[in-house]
Amino acid sequence: MLIGICGTICSGKHTTAEYLVQHHGFLRLHLPAITKSPRKLSITDGRFLPSVTDEKGTRGLTFPDVDSLLEFVTKRWQEHWVLTDIEDEDTLELLLRRPFFLLISVDAPVTLRFKRFNTRCSKRELPPLSLESFIDADDRLLYGSSPSQSITTTKGTAPLHSRAHLQLLNSHPSIQSYFQFLTTLDLPSESRLRPPWDTYFMHLAHLASLRSNCMKRRVGCVLIHNNRIISTGYNGTPRGITNCNAGGCPRCNSGSSGGAALSTCLCLHAEENALLEAGRERIRDGAVLYCDTCPCLTCSVKIAQVGVREVVYSQTYNMDESSRRVLAEAGVKLRQYSPPGKGLLGPHTHEAVMADVNGENQLVVRNGT
């Protein structure tokens, strides 16, 4: 596993790498700095050297280019490596092609990073920067220029952050509390490289929902058997009927609240479309339906009728209990799955995971603090 880390000045990029070294046995890898990179300021000015060099150094292996680094790691991908020297999109593009690579971005509020920076300067007995000068340096790192420059001559690291698999907010008051937070994320988990089936199919269900044009709610689902896709579905008006978002369903385009006046709705639900697409003859014993929203009562009746063995959903709905009773009586297992937290994960992040409690899958919320 190779974890790459990008970050803003004093966000904790190198501290994150050092956590992986200390707590999970990672070894640091290095690439030479790009000559025209805005990050060259960190080489020529001692104030921009990472704080971790004061205590831990930057031990590890150095490679002349990303190709030689990848050649080395490819033969040892099951070991743990960490890289903080990713400065441009070309390098990142080569790394992202590999199935053993995970990119993490680290950020923190600018006022907190400025405070950390000047504390570092004080420890090194170097003159601090004004807030304006600090932001100027930060802009050069991120965007390749600063407000004082009229022309951008180099590309910054901002595009790297947008492509990260995991984004961390390090607003922690101490390294110890940040390390405690990182421990809750299980960064070296193989599931971060290759999603388990539940995550995979739920992502596909969400992707299907993006095709929906229903004015009330986007819903998508995937019907599978033995981890093979039978059919997909998303909600919307029937074939030949004006699309919902074009006024095809008066109920969905009215002010009716969710769950009200359902008998007047013209939209087929995602589950209905998936079942119709598959047909009864293709829905064999053991079929599983993944849906990003818990099926309503009407869909639950149809799911039970065609012989689906299990329904896995992500978001709740106002008919959950009614659906649960019908499916339970029909012998259909219903469980909720919530994938690991996405977006910017910080001190107050809650990750939802599935756990087996008394022989049943239950949703457990784990506090990131």
Which helices and strands appear, and what pairs or packs with what?
Layout: E1 2-7, H1 13-24, E2 27-30, H2 41-44, E3 61-62, H3 66-74, E4 81-83, H4 89-96, E5 101-107, H5 110-123, H6 131-143, H7 158-162, E6 166-169, H8 175-185, H9 197-209, E7 220-225, E8 228-234, H10 270-278, E9 288-293, H11 297-306, E10 310-315, H12 320-329, E11 333-336, E12 344-345, E13 350-357, E14 360-367
Parallel strand pairs: 1-4, 1-5, 2-3, 2-4, 5-6, 6-12, 9-10, 10-11
Antiparallel strand pairs: 7-8, 7-9, 13-14
Helix pairs in contact: 11-12
Structure, explained:
There is one protein chain. The chain has helices at residues 13-24, 41-44, 66-74, 89-96, 110-123, 131-143, 158-162, 175-185, 197-209, 270-278, 297-306, 320-329, and strands spanning 2-7, 27-30, 61-62, 81-83, 101-107, 166-169, 220-225, 228-234, 288-293, 310-315, 333-336, 344-345, 350-357, 360-367. By secondary structure, the chain is α/β, with parallel strands linked by helices. It has a seven-stranded parallel beta sheet with strand order 3-2-4-1-5-6-12. It is elongated and about 75 Å long.
